Amino acid sequence: MDFVFDRTAEGRVIKCLTIVDDATHESVAIVPERAIGGRPLTRILDQLRAIRGLPKVIRPDNGKEFCGRAVLTWAHGRGVTLRLIEPGKPNQNAYIESFNGRLRDECLNEHWFTSMAHAKVVIEAWRREYNEERPKKSLGGLTPAAYALRLAARAATMLRRDLVAVADGLHEVLATAQLPSV
Hints:
The protein is an alpha+beta fold.
């Protein structure tokens, strides 16, 4: 989780919250706004929670938005660990830094946003294309979205297998148990 900055044509700031899943390389969200402080950040994270669930760990930098009271309270209340990187060590969050560079080179530097609404449409289109149309060697030639679906299917299969094993074990215990006669 990090921020990338740009400007609209009239010179006003665009602050983009970028959230990337390290496991799937999926761009979970890019949220362009004029300003995003701690409380608005927690509202964005709660909106994402409703769609995707919560991660166990979030790795942000030491920006005031990420280590302020609002986000610390939010994370503690939801059982999410914040693993802040060391100041001046962006390589500890290398994937988001690489992603942000790609966002800047391929989207932000290529467009002159006439308004915040224009920026939101263009940035969301770029995010979807990044997730759904760009295969990655590190993901076995799959797109981030396809890889995420594969991981979810594998997790569901493993859960189903575990439940069957538990049910079989319970059945075996009940079959061999000597129940008192009434």
